[in-house]
């Protein structure tokens, strides 16, 4: 790494996570391994907020060794459809593939609910004569006269964002590549995505959809990344800006423009990575991440040190993005989620949210509907001051909102209504954890629950008790843990290729050759990003399925490939866990092969604190109502910053800190470990 101009003890690594409301900054000292955080409002131009956050963290850009960045920029662009005009060029007869989709619906029973429109309108989906068959044979060469006419039309329209999606291009990209060359010559300033480069896999809708998403995001991501990098280098930063992508790695600004759709799940991936890190620091290889913010909760799962990955996800239902992505289940349960009564007078919670404006009733900004935040204020679990005293919470307003919205209609006391609101929210989150664990064959009792986000530590212990999870971990700075996740990742690329064959018919030498070709491509990408050969690591995977099945499972395989026996045995085992049945005697086929190419980036070590033989001192107390008790009790309140490694807090207790509040229920103990993570032990019946 190029050194800055400051002294060595000022060298830092910075990670930034830009959310819809706040921009979070993690600053890690190279010399001491100590971390501090900063939090600033997100600005209309997110770059202003990023630079303000770095300044708030006390960082001089000359002293910055490495900067990694997670952002919701791509996600928001797809949701709001704020991207430049784009065209799609496709095989004649395939114009409507991305609009026909798969015919499935988000709500199967609501025939009146309309699907979102494709990202590119029908009038902008242009066709050309060409055809490649299933085997890769070019049946109809590209009609170059038509291609030149399309290029003329596109140039006349002034469109500079183009997606090229030809039938069966995944097996032979020749026609797509020729079309790209014609368009690049006619419109040299255009940003062009071709499906055989973006996602060289079977199934037209999924390939077309991913390529279209990539195309419309490329100019958005490219413009943002180049402006951010330029402004940081003007301030003295000398290295590349690294952007977090959905697969759990980072890439340079230049590569992010090429594979822009990979940033569509940037923010939620960071939280899952940080969750795994916090758990491993505390000695747990199995962990479930619970990231609860103001509007939603993200749930992730890590089994034996590996985070679950999915290869089909979406920002808007019906338009899949098939880049590998860390699997995160998101539900509408956050601190600002509204409590409401349905037509049957049953209490519901979310997914509607009070948002930041007007926010929960206790904010005093005009909100009148009760929220989870209001319930926690009424129960005394939240104090009347947050964010170090910068935000005041009005308990009287929270009480009135719950009284009108829930307590009086249901004939309950305000406190009991608040308890009910929290229990419904917890039940929603517990169901989400079950979907990602029990439904996939994992037993929650074998995992630790990592509770983070601004609201996660308020609910973590209750969820763990409901799910019979024995341990809850709360990181030192739960409100900015997603930013920490950005700090922990390496440069990473996922390269895939179709390889349809029965396992018994596979020539292992041919398979080894295929893997080596993918590794060469991965090495070229890493080299273009400045990664030295000695820092390159390659992980091979085979997607396998029973012959005749639709879905496949990704199985790790060692290098070099000498036999498939071990991989097949592992596939049967994983199929039994995932789907609750396996057929060891049934024929297995390979569907796809992939290589994850990782460029290991330098990382500073986190500080390790020696335990002290001291008892914690409470800073005060307040009346708090717990689920386990019939009435509120006077409860000691501790300040998180005053808790040292080795200290133990006995429940009932409340632990306040700048970015969150931790609830330690009766009978639960919370110990501070050497990394300053709170380890709560949950007594289970």
TrEMBL record:
Pfam families: Hydant_A_C (PF19278), Hydant_A_N (PF05378), Hydantoinase_A (PF01968)
Domain Acetophenone carboxylase-like C-terminal: 509-674
GO molecular function: 5-oxoprolinase (ATP-hydrolyzing) activity
Residues of the Hydantoinase A/oxoprolinase domain: 207-494
Annotated ranges, domain Hydantoinase/oxoprolinase N-terminal: 13-186
GO CC annotation: cytosol
Alphabetical GO biological process terms: glutathione metabolic process
Origin superkingdom: Bacteria
Name this polypeptide is given: Hydantoinase
Organism, as annotated: Methylopila jiangsuensis
């Amino acid at each position: 790494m190029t050194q800055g101009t400051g002294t060595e003890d000022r060298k830092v690594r910075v990670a930034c996570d830009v959310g819809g409301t706040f921009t979070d900054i993690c600053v890690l000292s190279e010399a001491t391994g100590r971390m501090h955080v900063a939090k600033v409002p997100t600005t209309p131009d997110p770059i202003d907020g990023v630079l303000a956050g770095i300044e708030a963290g006390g960082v001089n850009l000359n002293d910055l060794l490495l900067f990694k960045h997670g952002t919701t920029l791509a996600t928001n662009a797809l949701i709001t459809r704020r991207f430049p005009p784009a065209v799609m060029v496709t095989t004649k007869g395939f114009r409507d593939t991305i609009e026909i989709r798969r015919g499935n619906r988000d709500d199967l029973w609501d025939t009146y609910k309309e699907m979102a429109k494709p990202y590119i309108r029908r009038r902008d989906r242009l066709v050309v004569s060409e055809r490649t068959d299933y085997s890769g044979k070019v049946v109809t060469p590209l009609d170059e006269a038509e291609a030149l006419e399309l290029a003329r039309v596109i140039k006349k329209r002034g469109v500079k964002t183009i997606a090229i999606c030809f039938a069966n291009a995944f097996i032979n990209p020749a026609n797509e590549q020729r079309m790209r060359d014609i368009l690049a010559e006619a419109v040299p300033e255009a940003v062009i995505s071709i499906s055989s480069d973006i996602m060289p896999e079977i199934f037209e809708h999924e390939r077309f959809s991913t390529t279209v998403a990539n195309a419309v995001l490329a100019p958005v991501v490219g413009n943002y990344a180049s402006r951010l990098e330029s402004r940081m280098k003007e301030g003295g930063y000398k290295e590349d800006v690294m952007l977090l992508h959905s697969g759990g790695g980072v890439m340079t600004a230049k590569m992010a423009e090429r594979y822009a759709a990979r940033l569509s799940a940037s923010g939620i991936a960071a939280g899952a990575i940080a969750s795994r890190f916090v758990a491993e620091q505390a000695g747990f290889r199995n962990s479930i991440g619970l990231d609860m913010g103001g509007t939603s909760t993200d749930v992730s799962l890590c089994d034996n040190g590996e985070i679950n990955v999915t290869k089909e996800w979406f920002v808007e239902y019906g338009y899949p993005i098939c880049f590998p992505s860390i699997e995160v289940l998101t539900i509408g349960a956050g601190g600002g989620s509204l409590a409401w009564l349905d037509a049957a007078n049953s209490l519901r919670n979310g997914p509607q949210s009070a948002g930041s404006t007007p926010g929960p009733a206790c904010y005093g900004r005009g909100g009148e509907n009760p929220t989870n935040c209001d319930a926690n204020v009424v129960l005394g679990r939240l104090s009347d001051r947050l964010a170090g005293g910068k935000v005041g919470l009005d308990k009287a307003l929270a009480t009135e909102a719950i009284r009108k919205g829930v307590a009086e209609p249901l004939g309950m006391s305000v406190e009991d209504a608040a308890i009910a609101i929290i229990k419904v929210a917890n039940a929603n989150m517990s169901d989400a954890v079950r979907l990602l664990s029990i439904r996939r064959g994992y037993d929650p009792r074998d995992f630790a629950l990592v509770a983070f986000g601004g609201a996660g530590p308020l609910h973590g212990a209750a969820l763990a008790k409901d799910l019979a999870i024995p341990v809850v971990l709360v990181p030192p700075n739960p409100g900015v843990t997603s930013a920490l996740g950005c700090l922990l990742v390496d440069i990473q690329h996922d390269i895939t290729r179709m390889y349809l064959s029965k396992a018994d018919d596979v020539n292992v030498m041919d398979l080894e050759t295929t893997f080596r070709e993918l590794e060469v491509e991965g090495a070229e990408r890493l080299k273009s990003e400045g990664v030295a050969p000695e820092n390159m690591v390659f992980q091979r995977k085979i997607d396998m399925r029973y012959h005749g099945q639709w879905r496949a499972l990704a199985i790790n395989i060692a290098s070099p490939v000498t036999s498939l026996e071990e991989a097949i045995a592992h596939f049967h085992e994983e199929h039994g866990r995932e789907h609750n049945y396996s057929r060891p005697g049934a024929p297995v086929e390979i569907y796809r092969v992939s290589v994850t190419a990782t460029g290991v980036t330098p990382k500073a070590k986190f500080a390790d604190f020696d335990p002290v033989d001291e008892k914690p001192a409470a800073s005060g107390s307040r009346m708090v109502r717990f689920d386990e008790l019939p009435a509120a009790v006077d409860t000691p309140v501790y300040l998180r910053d005053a808790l040292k490694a080795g200290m133990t807090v006995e429940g009932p207790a409340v632990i306040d800190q700048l970015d969150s509040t931790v609830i330690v229920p009766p009978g639960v103990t919370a110990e501070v470990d050497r990394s300053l993570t709170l380890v709560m032990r949950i007594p289970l019946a």
